[in-house]
Amino acid sequence: MGDYKNTACFIARCQPFHQGHKRIIDTLLAEGKRVIVALYDTTPDVRNPLSPYERTQAIQRVYGDRVEIIVIPAFGILVYGRAVGYVFREFPDLEGSAKAIREAHRVIWITGQSGAGKTVLAQALRTRLRAVILDGDEMRRSISTEIGYTLDERMKHAKRTARLARELSAQQNVLVASIGATAKIRAAVDEIAQPVWVYVKRAQPEREDYPYEPPTSPDLLVDNDVLSLAEAAEYAWSELSQLIFYGSLDERGTYAYV
Question: Where on the phi/psi map is residue 185: left (φ > 0), alpha (ψ -120 to 50), or beta?
Fold first, then answer.
């Protein structure tokens, strides 16, 4: 059984894992404890958007093999008998809020050539990200009815969509499925909405009326020449959940969102 008296079991949902959880684990490790993190196996919903695998991956990104992670069924009552051989330890001043992190909404801009599969991917991600979709074609039929397809007009349309996305993101995540044809246009969108850029790649015939400059360093590349629609959606969700819910942990143990 090993040194069980020096082993700490931390039971948590971690939806998502945040700096408060990290502070507890850091404290226990600093005391020389062996740490087991027991994650609730919750049913996915608004309060529990992440699977056990995704939460495990997030914790392992920080700790590697310094902690052991197990998954346990969710429960509402913790029962123990007398002389159980272990003690209960509370961290009442837990820092951070999983709810606040879940509600820190983002704009995710899916860019790619016409016909690459941007709208299909957005539709597949909408429920899991609890997002509203702004589709480029639909935006042209609503807020940009007078705008054509020259590069200047594309810039005007993209800025208009970006401003709408920014305002909507105060309430929920926003998925924009719009070409974002050039680096100059995407830079203008960056200034307005600071989106997470998802580049959907698919081999397409070149069209003079649809010029497209592929992004050189998107936040996420989804290769639809290699992945099936289902695989692309699962891959994109797995990667985006890291970017949106976790960002990156800086040296102080606080979240620095990308």
Answer: alpha
Paired tokens of 61: 């990104």
Q: Contact, 178 vs 118, CB < 8 A? A: yes
- Specify the amino acid at residue 11: I
Which candidate, 243, 242, 220, 256, places its Cα nearest to that of 55? 242
Dist CA 22 CA 249 (whole Å): 10
Please give the Cα distance from 16 to 246 (Å, whole number). Answer: 7
pTM: 0.72
Question: CA torsion, points 37, 96, 98, 125, in degrees to nearest 10?
Answer: -110
pLDDT tens digits along 29-46: 999 999 999 999 988 887
- Reported in sequence order, the residue ranges of 42-150 that DSSP labels E, i.e. its strands, are 67-73, 107-111, 131-135
Please name the helix (run of DSSP H) or strand (run of DSSP E) that holds residue 235, with its range, or none. helix 229-241
pLDDT band at 157 (very low <50, low <70, confident <90, very high): very high
Cross-strand bridge partners of residue 177? 110, 135
- Cβ atoms of 133 and 175 closer than 8 Å: yes
- The residues, ordered by sequence, that sit 6+ positions from 45 with a Cβ below 8 Å of its Cβ are none
Q: Which domains does the chain have, with CATH numbers?
A: 4-101 (3.40.50.620), 107-246 (3.40.50.300)
Best CA proximity match to 190, nearest among 156, 159, 148: 159
Sheet holding 67-73, edge to edge: 7-12, 34-41, 67-73
